[in-house]
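Quick check before the chapter quiz. The format below is the same one you will see on the exam, so make sure you can read both the input and the output lines.
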Amino acid sequence: MALFLTLDNIHALYSLDASPKMEGMVIHHQTYKANQSYTKHNRLFDGLLLGFLLKGSMKLNIHFLTYEITAGDIAVIPPQIMLETLELSEEAELITIGLSLDFITEFPLLREWIMNDQIRWQPIVQLEAEEQELQRNLIELLQRFYHKKESVNKTDMLRHLVLVFIYMLVEVYSTKPAAKSAVKNRTHAIIDAFYELLREHAIAQRQVGFYAEQLHLTPQYLSTFLKQHTGKSVSQWVDHQLILQAKTLLSTSDLSIKEISHQLHFAETSVFSRFFKRMTGTTPKVYRERGVLL
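Here is the expected output.
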């Protein structure tokens, strides 16, 4: 079963220094260590991961396909994509930036960009030679700001520095030819097809039977299969997608909570509010009033 990572548990799982801990973002500087625990698990991160390999090489499984990565490569891992580290060279040095779903939902362009199939099928990119020096400088600047003492504007400064990176990556992908889907095995095929169905139908279709029928599987088999390979059942995946949509609408639109409830196909606003609080620990009203915590 996959190890499910969030910003709340990632510090403990990876024994990170908690002093610069902040809502919405984590920056982790990794170097090779023998018997690293993270190589023992498939992992799913509840947000966007950006990995910058500064030195050495590594081999990763990303969404069930294997990639050889060398210095200068950037790994772009959208939310809920399976990740497994297979090999890491002894000289490897890696900077990983993790961005929470709350960070993502505050920026509609970012949310739309990470849902692009091109990223899922082409997760490894590299900047043009003339921009790689800018990349190194920006990574260094991000680390320095991340570890600087707390200040009123520290979070906003980090957000804008990260967004510079995002826009650089958007430009890279805009120049790449569209990738063709390449199904490697049945496991990959089922999960990928389910992700597509979820993205298109989660708001209107919440029954396990709908997804199982579309995939020509029994409901019990599909839920057990997804739980084993992704850490979530069909119902949990649907709830996850609904919360992502709800957070986006609450943080980026002027729709009333009642209108959002209706748009997400909840019978009553009170039902939507109870669902949102159960999933997030707070009500839609409080979430909107306090803004996205970063």
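If your answer matched, good. Strands lie at 3-5, 25-31, 43-45, 47-55, 57-62, 65-70, 74-77, 83-88, 93-100, 124-125.
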